[in-house]
Automatic annotation (TrEMBL):
Presence of keyword Ribonucleoprotein: no
UniProt protein name: Glyoxylate succinic semialdehyde reductase 1
Keyword Oxidoreductase part of the UniProt annotation: yes
Ranges for domain 6-phosphogluconate dehydrogenase NADP-binding: 3-162
Protein keywords: NAD, NADP, Oxidoreductase, Stress response
Pfam families attached to this UniProt entry: NAD_binding_11, NAD_binding_2
3-hydroxyisobutyrate dehydrogenase-like NAD-binding domain span: 165-282
UniProt xrefs under InterPro entries: 6-PGluconate_DH-like_C_sf (IPR008927), 6PGD_dom2 (IPR013328), 6PGDH_NADP-bd (IPR006115), HIBADH-like_NADP-bd (IPR029154), HIBADH-related (IPR015815), HIBADH-related_NP60_sf (IPR051265), NAD(P)-bd_dom_sf (IPR036291)
Recorded superkingdom: Eukaryota
Organism, as annotated: Olea europaea subsp. europaea
Catalytic residues of the enzyme: K171
Amino acid sequence: MEEIGFLGMGIMGKAMSMNLLRHGFKLTVWNRTLSRCDELVEHGASVGESPAAIIKKCKYTIGMLSDPAAALSVVFDKDGVLEQIGPGKGYIDMSTVDAQTSSKISEAITSKGGYFLEAPVSGSKKPAEDGQLVILAAGEKALYEEVLPAFDVLGKKSFFLGPVGNGAKMKLVVNMVMGSMMNAFSEGLVLADKSGLNSQTLLDVLDLGAIANPMFKLKGPSMIQSSYSPAFPLKHQQKDMRLALALGDENAVPMPVAAAANEAFKKARSMGLGDLDFSAVHETVKGSKSSG
Ligand SMILES: NC(=O)C1=CN([C@@H]2O[C@H](COP(=O)(O)OP(=O)(O)OC[C@H]3O[C@@H](n4cnc5c(N)ncnc54)[C@H](OP(=O)(O)O)[C@@H]3O)[C@@H](O)[C@H]2O)C=CC1
Ligand SMILES: O=CC(=O)O
């Protein structure tokens, strides 16, 4: 593949970029806070001065931004993607956003003759470092096929889900389930502890039964230690619950469990825990603030 542009050097963008560099891809990166590009430069990446400059230089550009506002900003604002996108250029937004945001970006890009793919991912910091993401792509099928060599490095499996919006919706459904599960898990950990049971024994029992899963296994031990170093920031999980609930509203789907989970994530944010890992929602059940 030709040189790839990458916008957004947060937890995920940085891990994904490092992985692409390790596999021999040539990258030009950009981040709003420029210093976050330094480590990538040490590993061989070039830096672009704006999203527009990256699009001008690269045939394919990936975006990995925090939320709908950020995803829209890098496309529509001054020196944004739209200023240089055109025929022969592809933009792939891998941020977790709602279908409306993705469609708005898609329409703007395709109206200038560019190609657009949404491709949110399931999997956190470690899977991003290890190329084990699950990629949920939708939009321009030809662009999907052209960037498959990069997706094969970034992920363990890619799905092409059809028209723009389907990738965003699939990702929101998955994270709605994950956020609800994290709340049930937190309540279970606190209930076991307060009723005199050993927390590690609870983890062992869960891991042997029908609801064993990688998330409980990965997050359980650190949650017991009240340690929440951010892999998936809680503020982003709450954004995903909010967007999933809006999707539920649009489709008249009752979601009382997800709504309760969203309230817990909102409470955690109000306690100042938004930049910690989403497992810090545990603190809302424990009823005390973590030192992080
Ligand atoms: N972390 C995870 O486990 C996973 C995250 N995701 C999704 O991936 C996306 C990125 O997540 P993650 O890397 O964890 O998030 P981070 O908070 O670590 O990074 C967010 C990135 O967005 C940039 N950004 C924020 N606002 C703006 C703006 N207005 N204009 C330009 N850039 C902006 C930040 O730039 P700056 O450095 O300047 O602040 C940073 O590069 C999110 O949509 C998240 O939901 C999906 C799967 C897993
Ligand atoms: O969006 C977060 C994830 O772990 O997937």
